[in-house]
Design brief:
With about 140 residues, the chain is mainly alpha-helical. It is built from 6 helices and 3 strands. A hairpin with a 2-residue loop joins strand 2 and strand 3. It starts with a helix and ends with a helix. GO terms for molecular function: DNA-binding transcription factor activity.
């Protein structure tokens, strides 16, 4: 096997490791930035999805976050107990929405998270960002 073949064989693993390291690093940074607001990144993500969707079935929120039913139930109960979301039963569906306190908290957290991600991608041009998005969408 040539050096080029060996390098190409290892390339997907190296790219995967880079993606994981980058994700872990930024996750830690976002978690640390959200801590003073009393939020985990998972809680922020859930609140941000509800901010975007408005009132939405709990299953739809779970699907958009790639949560299992148990995981969604756990986080929903925590946010309900803190008064950040409401959950109404509508037939067989549970519909979640932000409370005023939840809306205020996610609005406070958004600029913090956005600043971290803007810094993360600041060395990329607009074309490179679109290319990166396109490539990531093609991953299986």
């Amino acid at each position: 096997m040539s050096e080029l073949d060996a390098a190409l064989e290892q390339l997907p693993i190296r790219i995967w490791r880079r993606l994981v390291r980058t994700t872990q690093s930024k996750t830690q940074q976002v978690e640390a930035a959200l801590l003073p607001l009393g939020l985990t990144m998972t809680e922020f993500d859930l609140l941000a999805v509800l901010r975007s969707l408005g009132a939405a079935p709990q299953q739809e929120v779970a699907r958009s976050l790639l949560f299992t039913e148990a995981n969604m139930s756990y986080h929903a109960k925590r946010l309900l107990a803190r008064g950040l979301v409401t959950r109404e039963v509508a037939g067989k569906r549970k519909v979640m929405s932000l409370t005023e306190a939840g809306r205020e908290l996610v609005e406070q957290a958004l600029p913090v998270v956005i600043a971290i991600h803007e810094e993360q991608f600041s060395d990329l041009s607009a074309d490179e960002l679109f290319t990166l998005r396109s490539l990531l969408r093609r991953l299986k």
